[in-house]
Amino acid sequence: MMAVRRALKAVLVDLNGTLHIEDAAVPGAQEALKRLRSSSVIVRFVTNTTKESKQDLLERLKKLEFDISEDEIFTSLTAARSLVEQKQVRPMLLVDDRALPDFKGIQTNDPNAVVIGLAPEHFHYQTLNQAFRLLLDGAPLIAIHKARYYKRKDGLALGPGPFVTALEYATDTSAIVVGKPEKTFFLEALRGTGCEPEEAVMIGDDCRDDVGGAQNAGMLGILVKTGRYLLYAFPNAFPKTGW
Predict the structure, then answer these.
(1) What separation in angstroms does the CA of 198 have from each of 128, 190, 215?
(2) Mean pLDDT, residues 184-207 taken together
(3) Which residues form the signal peptide (predicted)?
(4) DSSP H helices in 44-144
(5) By the 8 A CB rule, do 64 and 25 touch?
(6) What is the pLDDT of residue 3?
(7) Cβ proximity of 221 and 21 under 8 Å
């Protein structure tokens, strides 16, 4: 039997692809957030972004004139660090160098675990083979998320999912996934709000990771056609530059 839907008290909002694409705001997103803020609901921001620390992400959002505080953001990096601390392991961190501040204080010498996020500069044979050998020796594989692809200003790009899957296939193991669309990610994001899943809704541009994940956690999901949809519909909306 489905849970009885209660009055809406909390809204989880995806970031990259929903409010912004890299360092460009989605048109109208700032005004939409202001209107949401004017209601009585609690707003939290959830993201699978692993290519920068929470502090760097917050600075990016502030430059784009989004009124967001650090304690309102819950990232998959936060979830991954919590799991590493719970398991008391020393991870080989296959993450972008800009994400390393979120793992400050974590011991990484003589690694006995592999943590993998979006790290294009590390996704080469030698490094992946090192991870492969650790996994063969029994190290757990922790995937910050398994997104198949993500949105950049120059189009879609491979996410960490294909590389996680390659390591799973090569070692005949299964990764522990901590980010969206995992149920525990959404429940952790709601922690501290005093709201139950039946009182919350998730807004995002990914029907699988955002909407599907939220629904599996007992929440409502709202799909917005920004992000990948915006890139398809308005290919010239964002400059074709790196960041």
Answers:
(1) 41, 11, 10
(2) 92
(3) none
(4) 54-63, 76-87, 125-136
(5) yes
(6) 53
(7) no
Q: In terms of Cα–Cα distance, which of 138, 109, 117 is closest to 47?
A: 117
Q: Structure pTM?
A: 0.77
How far lies 44's CA from each of 65, 105, 178, in Å?
17, 26, 18
CA dist list (Å): 220 to 5, 38, 41, 118, 182:
9, 21, 14, 28, 15
**β pairing state of 200-204 and 20-21:** unpaired
Residue 51 CB neighbour total at 10 angstroms: 20
Cα separation, 190 vs 202, whole angstroms: 11
CB 91 within 8 A of CB 108: yes
Beta strands in 7-166 (DSSP E): 10-14, 20-21, 24-25, 42-47, 73-75, 91-94, 113-116, 141-143, 149-152, 155-158
CB atoms within 10 A of CB 7: 8
Which 3 state secondary structure label does DSSP give 192?
A: coil
Token digits for 118?
């979006």
CB 182 within 8 A of CB 209: no
